[in-house]
Amino acid sequence: KQSVEVLNVQVHKVIHELQLVAFRNKFGPKQFSQHQMIALLILKARSGKSLRDFVIWLCESKWPEWLKLTEIPSKSTIHNYFQRFGMKIIRTLNNLCLQAQQVVKLAIDSTGIDLSGASKHYEKRIFREKTPHLKLSILADSDSKLIHDWISEERHVHDVQHAKRLVKRTSLKEVDIFADKAYDCEELMQIAAAKRNRLYCPIRDFGNKKPKSGRLRKKLHKIFDKKYYNTGRNPVECIMFLFKNDQIKIRSKRKLNKYKELGWHILAYNLKRLARAIRLLLQMTLDSA
User: Fold this and answer.
1) pLDDT exceeds cutoff 80 at 282
2) pLDDT confidence band for 11 (50 / 70 / 90)
3) Among 18, 68, 107, 127, which residue is least crowded by beta carbons within 10 Å?
4) In what order do the strands lie in the sheet with 133-141?
5) What per-residue string of b and e applies to 171-200 under the rule 16 or more CB within 10 Å gives b?
6) Quick one: how far is CA 228 from the chain centroid?
7) Which of 146, 130, 198, 143 is nearest to 167 (CA)?
8) Is pLDDT of 289 > 60?
9) What are the DSSP calls for 237-272, one per residue?
10) What is the pLDDT of residue 21?
11) Residues in a beta bridge with 113
């Protein structure tokens, strides 16, 4: 019940924020509203199923009743709406989910999302050297374990290049952004400082006791606290594990569709975390009553 309420509230917000009309077509049949189709795309990402299997699962679930569907949409209908909704709607919906969160600590990390779906044991046995994957970089809240922003590309990119874009895009001010040694870069620290934020990462020594270049790098080297760093950096590893543990499978073939499908997965992950927090809050309220 809480999951349904969280999903409906957030979808209604994005509909009003983007000023989307209730139905896509003006003169054609009005079977499914924009609200219902956005909810179905989130559910499809959360299920991890193919479109055909998702439609079969939808027939057996109570979601058509909860979403007030007059009939079950076909595979082609859901795919057409997937093509219609772009990254702008996905990011806007994600931002609306997180707008009430108070953030003190952020963390940046990167990982690879497998695209082949093949068994790693099988790949090792056939001596496969390179498997297709997406490089994913996230900017997440260390306390709530929610993903605030992300960048994905179908090629190898240095972690710092993604981090620069993430730090520039964020609207949060006066927060610490934790990262590992790979993000030790004076230019990245300057970008964070321009937004009144601070990049907090270990400084690479390169065989020297003190960094020889970079004003911000030298300043951070003097005040660096390992225990404080662990409180903000370690949770992002947990976030990556929780996100990838949902058995994410990117089934799209086109590059843009891969990025969108990954975006729907991130949105579904955040809504799952929010629904879990609401359930815990309600349980605590009932126990104390």
Assistant:
1) no
2) low
3) 127
4) 147-153, 133-141, 105-114, 176-178, 198-200
5) ebeebbbbbbebbbbeebbebbeebebbbb
6) 25
7) 198
8) no
9) HHHHHHHHTTT------SHHHHHHHHHHHHHHHHHH
10) 67
11) 134
